[in-house]
Amino acid sequence: MMPSLITRLPVYILLVLISAGCIPMQKPDRLKKYSSIEEALKNREEVGYVSLDNSGLTQIPVVDLAKLPKLIKLSLRRNRLGTISPEIEQLKGLVMLDLSQAGINGLPDGIGKLTVLKQLYLAENELTILPVGITGLNSLLYLNLDRNKITSLPSEIGKLMGLKWLRLNNNQLTVLPQEIGNLVNLERLYLENNRLKDLPGDLSKLTKLTDLNLRKNELDILPLSVLHLQNLVRLDLDGNRLVALPEDIKRLRKLKTLSLQNNKLPEETKDKIEKLLPDCQIIF
Questions:
Q1: Are 146 and 165 contacting, i.e. CB atoms less than 8 angstroms apart?
Q2: Domain boundaries, the chain
Q3: CA 214 – CA 199 distance, rounded (Å)
């Protein structure tokens, strides 16, 4: 069957032909991964993905990487990069940047110049603060800051309004800025193993949030802002100091999983919670 004819067939006929083996199912195009700068430079006009994981790097080879006009994915995991140089702003075409486990203790404001970046991985580093310049990442959808030493977030983080998934597990946060409520497109917020005693009232603005992980914090009561998250599907409160939940927990009508292990809830309170949320799987 000629390709020109295939493209004119109705979708349902195409599906039948594919399932019958008449048309081969094709895998989506994937970027070829280049694992050395030398190899990449030999093919500089076609390189879209460079992975220099575990290469003993102490700095990002920006000068060479900037010679790759189609570079959109860069992975530098498991290196010892220390403080990232401001030169990283030259890599303006990056869509994905993975700097996990890279010994990073500082980021330049210039990272905010990567305005088409959608995914940024910074897990398992030595970061204590984020630069204000990070707010320039207007296209960012996913930000992973798990397992750092972050003690506070800049109020400017609220400018990352396209963000859908924010991971801050295993840090040293004691408070969140009110501006986190400006992340109106956020769907997943992970805050496991911090030192949070409360949450800002503006968290209630995160009406698209479906997943909220608050396990292993220092919550004595459930913050009222959580009760306004009407699209919440999964709520993890394991390992806090809760002795009760407010009756208004029943307002979370879409909640399907609620985890409450390792709290201080008496048995009669557990019974009450089960009655308030009859369609929810509750784990005590």
A1: no
A2: 1-27
A3: 10
Q: Judge whether 103 and 82 are in contact, CB under 8 Å.
A: yes
Given CA atoms 106, 109, 113, 115 in this order, what sign does their dihedral have?
positive
Query: What gap in Å lies between CA 88 and CA 155, rounded to an integer?
Result: 24
Report the candidate in 175, 164, 251, 249 with the shortest Cα–Cα distance to residue 209. 164
Give the separation between CA 184 and CA 85, rounded to whole angstroms: 31
Cα-trace Rg, the chain = 23
Which pLDDT does position 65 carry in this prediction?
98
Q: What is the pLDDT of residues 10-55, one digit of tens each?
A: 544 544 444 444 444 445 558 899 999 999 999 999 999 999 999 9
**Minimal CA–CA distance to 197: which of 174, 228, 225?**
174
Tokens linked to 114? 């990567």
CA distance 263 to 96: 39
Between CA 152 and CA 175 the distance in angstroms is 7
Taking the complete model, does pTM exceed 0.70, yes or no?
A: yes
Distance CA 131, CA 109 (A): 6
Please return the burial class of 47, using the count of CB atoms within 10 Å of its CB with bins 0-12, 13-18 and 19+: buried
